[in-house]
Amino acid sequence: MSILEDKKLPIYNKEENEVTLIKIPPSTLQLKISQSRNQLEKNVKDVSMRIENIVDKWIGIENKVEKFAKELVPSNGEIISGGIYVMIAGMAGLILTQRRSFSIRFMTPIFISLAASTIFLPETHRNFRNMIWKYKQNYF
């Protein structure tokens, strides 16, 4: 048995081969691909930043519109029924001035709608008037 044990081969080689690294300069194709990839990454980052800026501006606009609507709508939230009456009054003003001059035909529905809004939407009309007054004080 000792003869068989001596003849067992080792699993790994006893001598280690030395690894030598050879530095190969990149080819022109590799350089061009690398430059193209870097340029593409830069362009993608640029486009994503622009899209992000556009989205941020859009969110800002949405917030301004939401704030405007919250300031304008009355606290009880009843705007539909009064709004319908105001629209009907404006259309009635348009019908009444059918055969008049353009300026009268244009301005009468606006004035009648404003007058109707003081009656049917008093809180909304007051909020709108206050908003216009603040705007006038700030910018004029």
From TrEMBL:
Annotated GO biological processes are:
cristae formation
Question: What superkingdom heads the lineage?
Answer: Eukaryota
Query: Which GO CC terms are listed, alphabetically?
Result: MICOS complex; mitochondrial crista junction
Q: Provide the species name.
A: Pneumocystis carinii (strain B80) (Rat pneumocystis pneumonia agent)
Q: Give TM segment ranges.
A: 79-96, 102-121
Assigned keywords, A-Z: Membrane, Mitochondrion, Mitochondrion inner membrane, Transmembrane, Transmembrane helix
Its localization reads:
Mitochondrion inner membrane
Name of this protein = MICOS complex subunit
- Assembly and interactions? Component of the mitochondrial contact site and cristae organizing system (MICOS) complex.
> Main role?
Component of the MICOS complex, a large protein complex of the mitochondrial inner membrane that plays crucial roles in the maintenance of crista junctions, inner membrane architecture, and formation of contact sites to the outer membrane.
